[in-house]
Design brief:
The protein is α/β, with parallel strands linked by helices and 203 residues long. The protein contains nine helices and eight strands. Helix 2 runs parallel beside helix 3 (67-77).
Length: 203
């Protein structure tokens, strides 16, 4: 089953228990992740091969199938996907068996929702899959400036003359490659004939 959230982060849940799949779907969609669940673990490797997942959440205790082998096969198929192992029966033996396959987390069921939420965000942040709030603001400012400049038919060179800033700096700000000071943004806002706060988009 596939459910769409509001962001591009995609998660595959592999668990033979439909109840767990439904719970994780509701939980993850509420966090704005895209979610696909798979109750037949034997299809997991094929699904990973066909899909583009950022995180794969796998139940370790799977009937008629070695969870450790499944983890190993998923990792062989996709060297980049983040693997989160769930188990109701944690042990040093199974933890030691899965860790060599670059597992991001080994989580006991039932888990604390807040801790699991933080765990996923930490994994996504480490992989560069989530923008920090500052990065989002920087990107919004750059996009707003570019749109306003183009609406007014201004080139970067013309903006540089109006603001007494370099073309290079203005270009970097528009591409969110450089943070701009309040003074710089004030010059840009004045050149575009808008209030300074207008540059912040929806923030």
């Amino acid at each position: 089953m596939r459910v769409e959230g509001d962001v591009s982060l995609s998660i595959l849940v592999v668990d033979d228990d439909p109840t767990v799949c439904h719970f994780l779907t509701d939980f993850l969609v509420a966090e704005n992740y895209r979610v696909e669940t798979l109750s037949d673990p034997s299809l997991a490797v094929e699904r990973v091969r066909e899909g583009k997942y950022h995180i794969c959440i796998v139940d370790l205790m799977i009937p008629e199938l070695s969870g450790v082998d499944l983890i190993k096969n998923i990792r062989t198929e996709d060297s980049d996907v983040a693997l989160v192992v769930l188990t109701a029966y944690p042990s040093l033996e199974t933890a030691s068996a899965v860790m060599p396959h670059e597992v991001s987390a080994y989580v006991r069921k039932p888990f604390d929702n807040d801790e699991f939420r933080a765990l996923l965000r930490n994994i996504a942040d480490k992989k560069g899959l989530l923008l920090r709030r500052e990065d989002e603001l920087q990107s919004a400012i750059g996009q707003t400036i570019r749109e306003l400049r183009k609406d007014r038919g201004l080139t970067l060179k013309q903006m540089a003359r109006r603001t007494d800033l370099s073309v290079s700096l203005l270009s970097q700000i528009e591409r969110a490659e450089s943070s701009a000071s309040v003074e710089t943004l004030f010059r840009v806002a004045t050149a575009l004939d808008v209030r300074l706060t207008h540059l912040f988009g929806g923030f």
